[in-house]
Protein 1
Amino acid sequence: AQDLKDSFLKSRDKFNSYLDSAPSIGFPPGDGADARREIFESFLWGVFAHANPECRRRVNRWESQLYFPDLQAQFDVILINFLGAVSAMANACRKMLEAGVA
């Protein structure tokens, strides 16, 4: 049971560490893309879900930059990693439910 909980926590922690690391392409310092989390949250909350005005303004500002396609590509890569983490966490939860672990 504890190994399933550890598996869930490991997936979550690994993804959070990934989000807090620098993107694979450098962007101008202080432009809101110093960490993958900033890119992920800006696109997620500024374009695709909810309506966070600060995130939307950031993405609007990025759209005028030559490196905008690189930011979009970074978001896509981050999203793929997010889906992998969610899948791993869901799998751990499913196994916990099947084992009757609370």
Protein 2
Amino acid sequence: MADKNEIIKLEKELLVAIQSSDVGTLDKLLHNDLLFIAPDGQTITKQMDLAAHRSGTMVVEELKSTIEQISVIESTAVVIVVYETKGKMLGNPIKGRFRYFRIWNLIAGDWKVIGGSCIQIQGFEKKY
């Protein structure tokens, strides 16, 4: 079982890896069978994510995060985080606020992201 501070540390490590397209760290943190739903509804795999970083089709110019909630349930952690993002994907600009739902699982002693999704929330303010 993890504590929330351990998950916060992993989230920060993931943030830095995304910002710098550190494929080695992303490879370490993402589970091989990761499934992630992008804001357009597309299912993204670990291999697709790593390929986008390797090829430079995903460019992160700015990325600021705010963790809204972490729930630790035995060997699973569910994280809700908001990213303020600016960058490009396949040459198209990406800018705005996105709320991510990310699932971490402790597998053979290592925490891995096993799933998640995100939606754009620009203009949406938390009401609770």
Protein 3
Amino acid sequence: MLDEKELSQFLSGIEAFSGVSPETLAKLVSAFHERPCHPGEVVICQGARGTELCIVVEGELSVTIAYPGEPGGEEAVQTVREVATLKAGDIFGEI
């Protein structure tokens, strides 16, 4: 876990926050909460209503899209395709 000073420094290195003053960064950091993720864990589901803006602090996240299977069988099998890999500093989600 990063402390508030480390998180402010981390954010200042991200292009989206590059013009933000240190005072404003400190206010933003106080509103953040860290959420560890585990391998294979779903962070955001396709089609779900988003309520958070997320920033990858360390590690990588795989972005996948599920496509419905072919109709006609008893069970349509979904196809999942990886479309991106998010790394430290990448922002995803929505507010």
